[in-house]
Design brief:
single chain, 6 strands, alpha/beta
Length: 194
């Protein structure tokens, strides 16, 4: 059951660009791999998107994981100065399955999608713990912010901000090279202009 969300400041939420492991289907979790050329291009597209908006007074906060922080450096260049980090924006912990092949695990565990792996990973974090971590982070925001994070963490933040139930996690839109803008429990997807 979704809980009421207090009024939040305007937020831009970005997922990191594609990494080597994204491209080859490996689960990253708390592990890291570098951005691909496509991932760098996606971060540059996010920079172009953010550059069309007035971010005066916005704070930039990134996951400390390399792929997110590198994306933040590119996406926020010339747009938002100082980038702070907060470990609560890190990706969901995958325990024993971090670094493993997503497709092989889906087949061996007989699950319908990769989402099921995030909840079932031995010694992993699980969705309830991630929800609590993201909710605690959001409770500390005092003003407009740009958040640079990861696929599942981005979805969880937006589930909370939109007042949706945890069951909606797999249905909420994601993606790389785009930006989500949230204000007053409304989400808007921003893309680079063609």
């Amino acid at each position: 059951m979704a809980k009421p969300v207090n009024r939040m400041p305007p937020l831009y939420i970005l997922r990191h660009g594609e990494t080597d492991w994204n491209a080859t289907g490996r689960l990253q979790g708390r592990f890291d791999s570098p951005l691909t050329q496509r991932g760098v291009a996606q971060a540059k597209a996010q920079n172009s998107i953010l550059g069309r908006h007035d971010l005066a007074g916005f704070k930039a906060i990134s996951s400390p994981q390399g792929r997110a922080f590198r994306t933040a450096e590119i996406a926020l260049e010339g747009v938002c100065a100082d980038i702070q980090t907060d470990a609560r924006l890190s990706e969901i912990g995958l325990g024993d399955w971090a670094g493993m092949d997503r497709g092989a695990l889906i087949r061996s565990e007989k699950v319908r999608s990769g989402f099921d792996l995030y909840e079932r990973a031995p010694n992993g974090e699980g969705f309830d713990v991630l929800y609590a971590r993201c909710d605690a982070f959001l409770g500390t925001l005092t003003g407009p912010s740009v958040l640079v994070t990861h696929g599942i963490t981005s979805r969880m933040l937006r589930v909370i901000l939109l007042g949706k139930s945890l069951a909606e996690l797999r249905k909420i839109e994601g993606g790389q090279g785009i930006v989500f803008y949230l204000e007053n429990r409304v989400q808007k997807l921003l893309r680079e202009r063609a």
